[in-house]
Write a structure and sequence with these properties.
Layout lengths: L1 E9 L2 E7 L4 E6 L6 H10 L15 E9 L6 H6 L8 E9 L3 E5 L2 E3 L1 H11 E4 L10 H11 L1 H32 L3 H16 L7 H13 L1 H16 L5 H18 L4 H27 L4 H21 L3 H18 L3 H46 L6 E12 L2 E10 L7 E2 L6 H15 L7 E5 L7 H14 L4 E5 L3 H4 L4 E9 L3 E8 L1 H13 L4 H12 L1
Parallel strand pairs: 3-13, 3-14, 8-12, 12-13
Antiparallel strand pairs: 1-2, 1-4, 4-5, 5-6, 6-7, 9-10, 10-11, 14-15
Helix pairs in contact: 5-12, 5-13, 6-12, 7-11, 8-10, 9-10, 11-12, 13-14, 14-15, 17-18
Length: 550
């Protein structure tokens, strides 16, 4: 769950810290007050690209920081592989946006956007009127169905996936064997020549050429370097008029002066430290200058080595890394040649047997998927009826496909919200009010098997009122038992269910500012009254109090 959001110099916010509840967090405020700023900031913390326009006018950078409490996922291995400190259940994700670029850190370590994207998959699902997230993507539907049914066929599916990996590897091996068996004697001899040429190069590392270029530049400029560093050394430590001589006199003067004024003792000490640092620098310059050698033999050796490495790169790849990859590929091809036609036949039989096993297991999994798809379709349709979509039809469609990593099924969520329309892919549902309720219905059903920690709804109440609002409110409360929910709403009925109620207000004096408050007590009642009646009066206040007591 998202425990805390901290913003600094972000759009219209100078500095803000918002601490979220693990249950239902509601954000309200007047139209145009900036309610979406908090949700957008959370989204941008995980985004691959962020516009510099989010930097507050007149400031050098904007900072978004999230503190995430992780109770569901074991990320130790992922963090270890990426050199990130593990703080236990707490994860700190920060993003710094400047005019020149964006830096993302996790627990203080710089990370790339692929890593941030992985974190988002673990912790966050956002639904807004303008964005399509996990539930709308057909590629995620099979995973949602399988995750829901994991207690029934989850173990069987995992074993199938491991076996399918073996099947794919055998297919690759077979292709390599067939290619190798078709090679002529001349081709084999040329293959051996290429391998020996690369092997004989004795490449030390993939950066050997860059290291040699650096060394070459030093050797080619040895005389200049010797002159520059030697001159600098004598400027510091020369016999007359040197910097050390001048500093020594200054130090003597300040030492005498400090005997009259003890306030100068600190300055004297700093001078002593500066003299010592300069003396060390001078020694290093002297050693560097004396040890620098214009080694023509080594220079020629490097030039010849670089010429040879450039030829290798031209023949086998644009870099030494590619040259070594080519070596591995060629070696694998040569090893494959040793296999006979009998080996190919044996491998083909093994692949055929394994495919038969996979097809049998995939059919078994497919039957169970179809059974669960029918049950889930019915459950989600019932939810839609509860959410005042009585004419809606929902179907989890399972269609056959070629054998693959996840079986032999294509799974897609289909829906029709009007009795006169055919079932269509979920992503094509047009109405904002309908899609919000559809998302809520699906989330409610998958809540107990869904590993996502935080679900965000941006204005989930768009296009609904009356009984639909009450139904949505009840469903959100139920969903918040399994997920942290953060949502923006204009409905008092929904806002009254909050475990924590944030109110956003925009003020405009000399500058425009957005401020966020946590509402409690009478302030919360007034906010609900204003949401319900458009103004605060006796009738709206009584209604607001009744909502809280429900």
């Amino acid at each position: 769950m998202i425990k805390q959001l901290r913003l600094k110099d972000y759009i219209l916010i100078d500095e803000l810290t918002a601490n979220f509840h693990e249950g239902l967090n509601v954000i309200t405020g007047e139209t145009g007050s900036g309610k979406s700023i908090l949700i957008n900031a959370i989204d941008l913390a995980f985004a691959p690209r962020v516009s510099k326009e989010v930097i507050k006018t007149g400031k050098e950078k904007a900072v978004i920081e999230l503190v995430i409490e992780n109770k569901k996922h074991n990320l130790s291995k992922l963090f270890e592989e990426n050199g990130i400190d593990n703080f236990g259940s707490e994860i700190v994700l920060s993003k710094e946006i400047t005019q020149s670029g964006v830096r993302s850190r996790v627990n203080g370590t710089l990370v790339n956007q692929d890593f941030i994207r992985q974190l988002k998959d673990y912790f966050l699902d956002i639904h807004s009127q303008h964005q399509t997230y996990a539930l709308l993507q057909p590629k995620s539907h099979i995973n949602l169905l399988d995750n829901y049914a994991k207690d029934t066929y989850g173990t069987k599916l995992e074993l199938y996936k491991e076996k399918f990996k073996d099947y794919q590897k055998l297919q690759i091996d077979l292709e390599a064997l067939k290619n190798a068996s078709d090679m002529t004697d001349n081709q084999i001899e040329f293959l051996k020549f290429q391998i020996e040429e690369i092997e004989g190069a004795n490449i030390n590392s993939i950066t050997e050429d860059e290291e040699l270029k650096n060394e070459l530049e030093i050797l080619e400029n040895a005389e200049k370097l010797k002159e520059l560093t030697g001159t600098s050394y004598w400027a510091i430590n020369g016999d007359e008029g040197s910097i050390m001589e001048a500093l020594g006199k200054i130090k003597q003067n300040i030492s005498k002066a400090s005997s009259y004024d003890s306030n100068l003792e600190d300055l004297e000490q700093r001078l002593v430290e500066a003299i010592e640092n300069l003396r060390d620098a001078g020694s290093e310059l002297r050693d560097y200058s004396q040890n620098l050698d214009n080694n023509l033999e080594r220079l020629n050796e490097i030039q010849e080595r670089l010429y040879f490495l450039d030829k290798l790169k031209h023949k086998y790849g644009g870099s030494l890394e590619e040259v070594l990859k080519t070596f591995d590929k060629l070696s694998a091809e040569l090893n494959g040649i040793e296999f006979s036609s009998q080996n190919i036949e044996e491998l083909e039989q093994k692949i055929s047997q394994l495919r038969n096993e996979l097809e049998h297991e995939a059919k078994d999994i497919s039957e169970q998927r179809k059974n669960f798809a029918q049950v889930l379709s019915s459950l989600i349709q019932d939810k839609l009826e509860n959410l005042e979509l009585p004419k809606a039809r929902f179907k989890i469609d399972v269609q056959p496909k070629e054998l693959s990593q996840d079986g032999m099924d294509n799974v897609e969520f289909l829906i029709s919200t009007n009795i006169s329309e055919d079932l269509k892919p979920l992503a094509k549902v047009a109405s904002g009010g309908e899609i919000s309720r559809v998302m809520l219905a699906i989330k409610s059903i998958f809540a107990q098997s869904d590993d996502i920690n935080t679900v965000i709804f941006d204005e989930i109440d768009t296009g609904i009122s009356g009984r639909a609002s009450q139904s949505v409110a009840d469903e959100i409360v139920e969903l918040s038992k399994y997920h942290q929910i953060i949502l923006i709403t204009h409905q008092a009925i929904i806002a009254s269910k909050a475990d924590k109620h944030f109110y956003v207000r925009k003020s405009q004096n000399d500058e425009t500012h957005v401020e966020v408050y946590v509402l409690t007590g009478d302030n919360r009642v007034k906010a609900l009254a204003e949401l319900a009646g458009g103004e605060i009066n006796e009738q709206s206040m009584e209604f607001a109090k009744s909502l809280i007591l429900q």
